[in-house]
Amino acid sequence: TLPALAVAILPPLLVLHRAVLIKQLEIAATTDEKTGLFNTTGWHLLASRELARAQRSTRSTFGVLMIDLDYFKLINDEHGHLAGDTVLRAVAATIKSAVRDYDSVGRFGGEEFVVLLPDIGPAAVLAVAERIRSAIEVLKVEYSDGRDVRVIGGLSASIGVATYPDGGTAVDRLLQAADRALYR
Fold this sequence. Notes:
- By secondary structure, the protein is α+β, with helices and mostly antiparallel strands.
- The protein has helices at residues 2-30, 40-56, 72-79, 81-98, 122-137, 171-183, and strands at residues 62-69, 104-109, 112-118, 141-144, 149-152, 157-164.
- The strands form two sheets. Strands 2-3-1-6 form a four-stranded antiparallel sheet, with helices on both faces.
- Strand 4 and strand 5 form a beta hairpin.
- Helix 3 crosses helix 4 and helix 4 runs antiparallel to helix 5 (122-137).
């Protein structure tokens, strides 16, 4: 009876195991491994869904923030890449804590982050951007250099803002508008 029980249990167990693996692969494919935020692919997917939702509604707006850490190369040069990675994780956590639970934060690579803010107007988007900028400015990041615990402070970020539909009616257009605003 034991072999018969194994034959009965094994197929559902394999199906369940496969479903778990597929879910893990989907998460890995859309997550930035360094920060735990959405990666470019995952963030674009969410932004495209939000755009489609907003286009179905006549009064729906949403915001996009493009955030760039200023002088990040100097952090890597002065403190090393491991300290730089610690700063990226701390900034990622700071951005996440400065937005609503249902906002989507992503890392676009390097020291660039993006935020999708559903159901929000232009004035509120600016307020969120300022809240993030201020939180990064007061951030103190501790790391160990192997001998001592050191602190990196004095961080700053440039943030570009765009809102749908005024800033663009496609995800790429909104990102371009936010990117142009960042450099201003």
